[in-house]
Amino acid sequence: ENTQLKDIISHAKEYGFVYPSSEIYDGLQAVYDYGAYGVELKNNLKRLWWESMTRLNDNIVGIDAAIFMHPTTWKASGHVDSFNDPMIDNKDSKKRYRADVLIEDKAAELEKAGKEEEAKSLLATMGRLLEAEDLEGVRDLIVNENITCPVSGTANWTDVRQFNLMFATQVGSVAEDASTIYLRPETAQGIFVNFLNVQKTARMKVPFGIAQIGKAFRNEIVARQFIFRMREFEQMEMQYFVRPGTELDWYKAWADTRVKWHKALGIPEEKLRTHDHDKLAHYANAAMDIEFDFPFGFKEVEGIHSRTDFDLKSHQEFSKKKQQYFDPEVNQNYIPYVIETSIGADRLFLMTLCNAFTEEEQEGKKRTYLKLHPAIAPVKAAILPLTKKDGLPEKGREIFDKLKFDFNVVYEEAASIGKRYTRQDLIGTPFCVAVDHQTLEDNTVTIRHRDTTEQERVHIDELHGKLVSATSF
Ligand code: ATP
């Protein structure tokens, strides 16, 4: 792991953002817990996504489907048969890898060395082989490209085998009656099986969308890069149901909307790019990733997929229940086509954290702070009385009590004001409000801005309005 990622991981742990799961037992691989500031940041990201989907679009509504679903769901969706990743082992180190990720890493290496054409053609070859399920071909490609194991340094590889990523468990307490069910590997199917329920009860007309945030589980072969690839994670997905034939226009429109959303979050243009898929999933007729320049290179944050009518059609076939919509405008019954936007809340969190993590030299001293958009910062303002006496704490509490109903604010009186500023910088608090003796006289306070460390004097009554405008997205 590179040093910048290491710094971010230790910052996340030390300042209450992310801890390894069940850490006292040495953790559980690829599972993480969110701490006091992490949960605030993650909730803010989720709320922002939810509001951008369901409030800004009067034709998108939300649902919250269960994690467990009827097992036939996953037959129909294709996950039982083909939600696999190609796995390969190195015979010397006994380490297991995802064959496609090994090749992708090689391509990234080539790209870095300026061999962009070679990288592209390597990825295209891999895409073709995987699509044809030519696992032997994938192994040959790894050998011919002289891809070696990062641990043993050798190219002594086993065959490539498919590995299904779904976690299975049993429902029912009596062994004979128990049946295998799965932890959902994506939230989307909860939306598809509820398509008609929602369409009818919320009286939706095509085109319309259904949004959902919820946990998904994948038994990832290699879990690495912190919360980038987890075995338990959260997805935020929106399925947009459209008239057949119009799907590619909607696909482009949604890709555009989503890229703009990331920029509005404060992600600079040069750290974002889109990447069209070389290999299409079994359900798609177009797919792209929105990628972010992580410390370990450009990687997918969000997928935009044109899923055709694959899912609804398949559910109709398996359930024997019509999944059609009557479109009064064209006087026709049809199964709608679907454009999906799918983003992991945890991956979005990691992108946000990587983008915000800032180390600067100031007067020969290093200053570390999180440059988070105020709309997503865990704490919006810290109320800090200069001293613990002369009525300053009481005044500070009064300000705190006025703001706490509308904003996540904190009140702190311990330690020097400088130390308290630093602490807020480390968790990304955009504003520190210092209460001093003058405050008692004229009700003004000093606001210290996180990014510039500049200070301004404002009246207490202005604080609420300033926070409202700063934290709006
Ligand atoms: P990858 O190629 O990285 O395995 P994918 O193409 O399988 O990802 P999708 O099935 O399109 O991913 O999932 C949509 C989104 O869900 C991804 O863009 C990512 O943000 C998130 N996601 C998928 N798998 C994981 C995971 N194991 N941990 C965290 N987030 C994930």
UniProtKB/TrEMBL annotation:
Keyword NADP found: no
Recorded superkingdom: Bacteria
Main localization (coarse): cytoplasm
Residues annotated as domain Aminoacyl-transfer RNA synthetases class-II family profile: 122-378
GO cellular component: cytoplasm; extracellular exosome; microvesicle
Residues that coordinate or bind ATP: 218-220, 228-233, 300-301, 344-347
Catalytic activity: tRNA(Gly) + glycine + ATP = glycyl-tRNA(Gly) + AMP + diphosphate
Cellular location(s): Cytoplasm
GO MF annotation list: ATP binding; bis(5'-nucleosyl)-tetraphosphatase (asymmetrical) activity; glycine-tRNA ligase activity
UniProt function note: Catalyzes the attachment of glycine to tRNA(Gly).
Subunit structure: Homodimer.
UniProt family annotation: Belongs to the class-II aminoacyl-tRNA synthetase family.
NCBIfam families: glyS_dimeric, PRK04173.1
Classification via PANTHER family: DNA POLYMERASE SUBUNIT GAMMA-2, MITOCHONDRIAL (PTHR10745:SF8), GLYCYL-TRNA SYNTHETASE/DNA POLYMERASE SUBUNIT GAMMA-2 (PTHR10745)
Name the record gives this protein: Glycine--tRNA ligase
Annotated organism of origin: Echinicola strongylocentroti
Lineage: Bacteria, Pseudomonadati, Bacteroidota, Cytophagia, Cytophagales
Gene designation per UniProt: glyQS
